[in-house]
Design goal:
Layout: H1 9-39, H2 43-53, H3 56-79, H4 83-119, H5 123-155, H6 160-182, H7 192-216, H8 232-262, H9 268-284, H10 286-304, H11 308-342, H12 348-361, H13 365-381, H14 385-406, H15 413-442
Helix pairs in contact: 1-6, 1-7, 1-9, 1-10, 2-5, 2-9, 3-4, 3-5, 3-8, 3-10, 4-5, 4-8, 5-7, 6-7, 8-14, 9-12, 10-11, 10-13, 11-12, 11-13, 12-15, 13-15, 14-15
Length: 466
């Protein structure tokens, strides 16, 4: 465990954000490695894998539900120095991860094909998307176990073990992808199906390694089968914090699915260009997303310890850092956005769509950074419903106008991109207003508890702490 209620907030944010960013970078490389080899199969394969990959946002929403609730409650317990509560939260999270994993397997194999057919542009795209999704479904199911364990560690201020496991899975995926997708060494290429299989195998290995870490090395929170019996009251607390966060990602999934649906008339090249541009944008956002992930345990522990000025300072520091990073990324995308797209495809139509998308969407990077910081703070405060409300504002102001625009005779892709910029800006303003209200309501001036300074004794650490 690492005590985040003492010392420099900026140093704590950066110290956590760096390994989180490295882990997320490797996680993005996970996607980009698959995309690199799938791109060699043509636009239909790219569009199929990208389209089917949007189903991953449903899983991301559910893992976010689990992870956010776990981080928030564990960090609050750590701030109060309540190790027993932190352990119980973790083990109930493990129980929920098993339930969600089983449901994912059932849903993926039963409904995956119908979903891909509903959004893909043509039969070749459908075939590639279904093949990829079926083989990727086991990996999606195992994501819940990774998130439960990684979130508990993050709540205690430890992030290095998760980073190391993420690096391991990406290295393994990089080795398997050319073999399974392109048939290197075997002369039996599996195409899009190979991309899904490589990911599933790699994730399974990662789950095993992180499980071994908990069994052998972690001492503050640990696996305890006796605590896997359902505790309904605690599960409700986890879900009360996590469900709105999961709802945010479901809304993002709806937005992405709508984009694929409204641009399907422009053909596979348009879907491929948007798919590559979206993956690149995710990669560019990594440093800022890592900061937002660091905000939750830092502010969460201080909220649990009732050190409210440090909670406010965490938001100020995170906002300043994220704004500087997003400004640099905006300028980079305005200068040479096509460089990022050409790494993955040389098809002129796909490059044009992807580069134009990045250039326009870059204008809302600053707003996106504010949204990330606000989201991390809502999670730290243990109330993510305001964050869901701001995402709802974006959903309403994007989806309905996008569908209406798609029915007009002179509908263009640029209209979709600019509409997205406007809706994200509105979401950022809504988030800031709601966070100010939460600060007034929940950070009520209160003296620090007696002995707060004394509680800053030497923190308990685990052998791979980071």
């Amino acid at each position: 465990m690492k005590d985040l209620t003492q010392g420099s907030i900026t140093r704590a944010l950066v110290a956590m954000a760096v390994p989180i960013a490295i882990g997320m970078l490797f996680q993005t490389l996970y996607l980009l490695v698959d995309l690199y080899f799938v791109a060699r199969l043509g636009d239909a394969a790219i569009a199929g894998v990208s389209s089917a990959g949007t189903a991953g946002f449903v899983i991301l929403a559910l893992t976010q539900m689990l992870g956010v609730g776990t981080v928030a409650l564990v960090s609050h317990a750590v701030g109060r120095k309540d190790q027993a509560e932190a352990n119980l939260v973790f083990n109930q999270s493990v129980l929920l991860s098993a339930i969600c994993g089983v449901l994912t397997l059932v849903a993926g194999f039963v409904a995956g094909g119908a979903y891909v057919r509903s959004i893909a542009a043509d039969p070749d795209v459908v075939a590639a998307g279904i093949a990829y999704l079926y083989w990727y479904t086991p990996g999606l199911a195992l994501q819940f176990a990774l998130v439960a364990m990684g979130s508990a560690l993050r709540g205690t201020g430890i992030v290095r073990p998760t980073m190391m496991v993420q690096m391991l899975t990406v290295i393994l995926n990089t080795l398997l992808a050319p073999v399974l997708i392109s048939g290197w060494g075997t002369h039996h290429p599996l195409g899009a199906a190979g991309a899904g299989l490589a990911s599933s195998v790699s994730i399974a290995v990662g789950v095993v390694f992180l499980w071994v870490y908990f069994v052998r090395l972690e001492h503050y929170v640990g696996l305890d089968p006796q605590q896997w019996r359902p505790h309904p009251a605690l599960i409700r607390r986890i879900l009360n914090v996590g469900l709105p966060a999961g709802g945010e990602f479901l809304m993002l999934f709806v937005i992405l699915a709508v984009i694929y649906w409204v641009i399907r008339g422009f053909g596979p090249a348009a879907q491929a260009g948007f798919g590559v541009g979206g993956r690149v944008m995710q990669g560019l956002f990594l440093p800022v997303m890592a900061l937002a992930f660091a905000v939750t345990p830092v502010a969460g522990q201080n909220f649990g310890a009732r050190r409210y000025e440090r909670v406010r300072e965490t938001f100020r520091q995170a906002t300043a850092l994220s704004s500087a990073l997003m400004l640099a990324l905006t300028l980079l995308c305005q200068w040479r956005s096509e460089w990022f797209i050409e790494v993955f495809t040389r098809q002129p139509d796909a490059v044009e769509v992807g580069a134009t998308y990045l250039r326009v969407i870059a204008w809302n990077f600053l707003a996106t950074g504010l949204i990330f910081s606000c989201s991390g703070m809502f999670q730290a405060l243990g109330n993510t419903w305001p964050s869901l409300a701001s995402s709802g504002a974006r959903l309403l102001t994007f989806v309905l106008p996008a569908v209406l625009l798609s029915t007009l005779p002179h509908f263009t892709l640029m209209q979709v991109w600019y509409l997205s910029v406007a809706s994200v800006t509105l979401q950022a303003l809504t988030s800031l207003a709601l966070l100010r209200r939460e600060f007034r309501r929940r950070l009520v001036a209160s003296p620090e508890p007696p002995g707060a300074a004394a509680s800053a004794a030497v923190p308990v650490t685990s052998s791979l702490e980071g």
